[in-house]
Specification:
Distance between the termini of chain A: 32 Å
Structural class of chain A: alpha+beta
Radius of gyration of chain A: 18 Å
Oligomer: homodimer
Shape of chain A: globular
Chain lengths: ~160, ~160
């Protein structure tokens, strides 16, 4: 790992966000920082309760702020420091954002030990759809595929 | 499936959003609708390009709007109709939101056939972390766990 001091400083920033979120009674103990070329782009703690938004985990909130700051939906060239291994939602968001590297501290097993459901959701995603706790029903596929066919001919067809 | 006509009407609404998003050159061919007790709560198409937000898939956007409308981060009792099988990010968001049932039309394989990366991300999540395309590095776990310990004593400790 190059620039170890820099990595440590940004991860400590993420950890500090996670601590502060609890000590200030804002929300759950998670923080994340997005960095590009060694410079801070955006940072956030978990904002689920504060924003009434179940998707406002620290990583997703930091990604949204980074996109706002850089005026793009493509964070290629950025890295993320997160105080905990991302849940499947946040891991998916990191892939879609094209972030280059994830640095994390606590594991999903640590999160599970303290009552967070990350591991449960990982376990669910590992199961075939029909064995999951959450019922899933397919319908009208024949009608829906028309939108994909329309997309094929769209002048707007860019990689999104 | 009870109330088949109602299910068909809401799924057609999701499909219409996916078609309209392409025909109006707003974004990718995906739409989602959140419903509670047979009534529409929120609906959205994919807003990634329009909002410069890689997390603004149709399902996540509809969930955020539903939470805003119902003034809660807990969508228990709601169901979601989505024009395509959710990607791991959106599936995670659906779990965190506590939505009760997913109705979907196109499959992730259909999405892959038309150039969308959902299946790639599913495949990545199935691999052990060290075999994924996206580099992941653990560091400072000993320092980060302090936030979880602080959380255990927080008066704010509610299920979030």
């Amino acid at each position: 790992m190059e620039n170890i001091e820099q990595h440590v400083a940004f991860m400590r920033m993420a950890i500090e966000l996670s601590m502060q979120n609890v000590s200030e009674c804002v929300g759950a103990p998670f923080g994340a920082v997005v960095v590009k070329d060694g410079k801070l782009v955006a940072k956030s703690a978990n904002r689920v309760v504060a924003a009434n938004d179940p998707t406002a985990h620290a990583e997703i909130s930091a990604i949204r702020l980074a996109c706002l700051s850089l005026n793009t939906f493509d964070l290629s060239g950025c890295v993320i420091y997160t105080s905990c291994e991302p849940c499947p939602m946040c891991l998916g968001a990191i892939y879609w954002s094209r972030i280059n590297t994830i640095y994390y501290a606590n594991t999903k097993a640590d999160a599970a030990d303290f009552g967070f459901d990350d591991k449960f959701i990982y376990d669910e995603l590992d199961k075939p759809m029909e064995e999951r706790m959450l019922p899933v029903v397919q319908m009208l596929r024949d009608e829906a595929v028309a939108a994909f066919k329309l997309w094929e001919t769209s002048p707007m067809r860019i990689d999104c």
